[in-house]
Amino acid sequence: MTARNAFYAQSGGVTAVINATACGLIETARSHPDKIGAVYAGRHGIIGALTEDLIDTSRESPDAIAALRHTPAGAFGSCRYKLKGLEQNRAEYERLIDVFRAHDIGYFFYNGGGDSQDTSWKITQMAQSVSYPLTCIGIPKTVDNDLPITDTCPGFGSVAKYVAVSVREAAFDVASMAKTSTKVFIMEVMGRHAGWIAAAGGLAQEHPGDAPHLILFPEIPFDEPRFLERVKEAVDREGYCVIVASEGIKNAAGEFLSEAGTRDAFGHAQLGGVAPVLARIVKEALGYKYHWAVADYLQRAARHIASKTDVEQAYALGRAAVELAIAGKNAVMPIIIRKSDSPYVWAIGEAHLSEVANVEKKMPREYIGEDGYGITAACRRYLAPLIQGEDYPPYENGLPRYVHLKNEAVPKRLTAAFQPAK
Amino acid sequence: MTARNAFYAQSGGVTAVINATACGLIETARSHPDKIGAVYAGRHGIIGALTEDLIDTSRESPDAIAALRHTPAGAFGSCRYKLKGLEQNRAEYERLIDVFRAHDIGYFFYNGGGDSQDTSWKITQMAQSVSYPLTCIGIPKTVDNDLPITDTCPGFGSVAKYVAVSVREAAFDVASMAKTSTKVFIMEVMGRHAGWIAAAGGLAQEHPGDAPHLILFPEIPFDEPRFLERVKEAVDREGYCVIVASEGIKNAAGEFLSEAGTRDAFGHAQLGGVAPVLARIVKEALGYKYHWAVADYLQRAARHIASKTDVEQAYALGRAAVELAIAGKNAVMPIIIRKSDSPYVWAIGEAHLSEVANVEKKMPREYIGEDGYGITAACRRYLAPLIQGEDYPPYENGLPRYVHLKNEAVPKRLTAAFQPAK
What we know:
Two copies of one chain form a homodimer. By secondary structure, the first copy, chain A, is α/β, with parallel strands linked by helices. Chain A contains 13 helices and 13 strands.
């Protein structure tokens, strides 16, 4: 068997550790030159495959590839681009196969969330239908932690750690100042559809009464009077109130709170931010001085405070993807299997792409406290291991030394250009 | 000479390293039991002195005091409370002297910004006028970096590091996604009156073209058409645009942009946040997909990514305050003197409180690039040393282990209660 080339693409929102997965994958592929030739990465994800814009990772030095392990975001570029169904846009799938054939690509590695695993599964089926020999391996990635079967998704543990650390630190600040200044602090975090990231804020709490005093989950409809009551209780009892709010909280009518009824003086819809909306509600009803923060991209890019566990899992899944491929597996995704909570013991397993595609793992209701404003012991048992350990990047001149790859293009071999659908 | 007690208070907005100053001060005081008896801290700052609510720091273990070095925010509580002038509210100054007399306090250490140094100076004068023997030492602290004479203020270097690291990380994220998603990212930082913190965002830039592409300073009136032109240029050239915006930017009429003309559907003023205002301006004029972050307290509480230089200076100034006091100095503030930029060599000096009180150090115009949107080489030379080095706190269960002191009260000795002015 002669070695064939591999294609790797990063998909969707990037994370602090998706490059660690790329690192594990490329380093492992390089150690099997008999099976895998070059690893080509898609420039801007799958769009790079469609447009035949491939990056030759074999032009990067071992040091540069090793540095991916501690570099956040997507080193080859990612994209938000969902391939349509096979019936709706067969041309795109055919194009992918054309590009793969032109570059002798025998391995397809797709690093993303549920949509991406669905795409991987469709590409598997397409390749089979045209008898193109292609090994398709999905690799999990998403800060949303919503892929099924796997214990967790790389990227989530580091966001969780960032949020827990930030909430703890901000709470120390607010506690210091509450006597004469800020009494209510609201931190808005990601998670439009599930409360996993908001829940991680609960890890900041060490003792009862510690911050956060309230967590607002997208799973629990926002009840303004109850919310205000709880804010007042916390301020009366602790002197201050720290709130972690998911960006995705909705009112009883199912509308996002960040969009409901907020327009500026010119009638423009206000652009995002549930934290300022909550701040206004608190200020008007209770009169407390408030502050709010919106972490936005900072939370998912914060490689400086990444979870060591998360980095190790991200790397291990990249390595496992190659190992599964050269072991002859197809249409699978390596996953994390939890063997025990404490100490946290995990191993790599695998799931079939058809089981993973388009299945969303919701946060179990039993992870949210009965009152809807906190996390349960079961949730804490699940989350706590995921933020364990620190894995600091190297620093230079006071700043993390992140790598910029050369990202040299593979010469094109096809004459036809291709325009992605949207 | 018998030992007399010391009073220490934290004032104004807290920082990631003000407790490192407390640590230096208390450890040094403990090593001079012949001169200094107990160190009493004001609970919630100067309010603790006015209300005779003193914390006996001698009840804390050496380990707990040592842990202050790596614990953010104000361990004894701080306050925003400015004593009025001697003429306007002599009663408050008399009360302070009464409390000090009752507890044999011979040393007054006030850890704060310009207002606090003004208060220290007034207390010096008051003590002299009633012949109460009191040594008054100010200790600098402010993330705003606006105290005169000293090279920098403890707290600033760590905010600067947080902002530079965060901008670099977020920029990697945006660069990964810009092809199909977010093209403009805005990070709002503190600094209502001076652009020091915004300027620190400029340190994230390594090569020309790197983020941040625009820095918006409060010193430069916001010019919407020019701003939009520059955003478009960056997106055309780099594919994306990262903006660091001071919370204090103003329009040509001198109004804060965060307050100008933004009301919600019910006519409520929108509560803070210049980043969403800028996002709307960009979206409406240029149509780019945007994201924005408001770091708020996270930036000044972020002990996990504190500058080692800042921590060392904060500690050294606390130690120096005690050393100046026992050397018989009065009405002075220890300061940082810069001996050289690179390598950064600094020493402790001193300034008289009368020179420091109510003098604000502005950012020099020559630190802002000619076009008003970036920092100059001179600014970089000044800022770069201040973020050098990492000083990680210890971790437990994936989270920084910050200390909660016992904060036991000193028994009251005065019969009269006292109500602070406001």
